[in-house]
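#lab-general

N.A. 3:47 PM
ok so I finally got the sequence cleaned up, no stray characters, all 198 residues accounted for. can someone with queue access submit it? mine expired

B.Y. 3:52 PM
send it over

N.A. 3:53 PM
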Amino acid sequence: MPHSPTTPAPTPQAPAHHPARPAHWAATATAIAAVIAGAGLVQPEPATGATPPPGTRNDPRATAPDARAVTYPLDCKGLPQTVTATAQGDLDGDGHPETVAAVRCQAGSGTPPHALYVLIQDPAPGSTPRVVATLLDTDRRRTATDLAIRDGSVTARLLGYSSPDVPRSDPDVSQLAKWRWTAGKFRQELTDSSAGSV
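B.Y. 4:20 PM
back already:
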């Protein structure tokens, strides 16, 4: 059977190219400039390797450790321990608050000396607060008052005695003490010391 010659397929028409107008280029340049400017606003902070100052990063979900959920390394000779004051704040700049607790033995009479402890709360579920530092030991024979955390430092007024002859109910020495987390440990500063009736 004879074949008819094949008719060539029509060549598709190329889309018409319209020359760009100046308004088109202006709109494109404006859009690109906006993207570049926006990217500049979301650049990450440079990594410096430095620890931020205490109190500069705060996690609103973080809660301070409960001072009454801790057994302290304080020998009370069988008497109960009592927490008389607490203060909370971020001492090392990690965004999680620590608790400082003033603790002493609960004696029936007299004024037992205080110990000051720093507590942290591990983030793992079910973890309990724990003591990570002792700022003041009972061997110093001091009573701590006005416990506070301000600007990343712990402050307390320490009441004591100038000699063994001073009655334990009438301390005659007052020191304003400050502790700050520096170079991996707490360092104490005595900012004021005075003798006399307190």
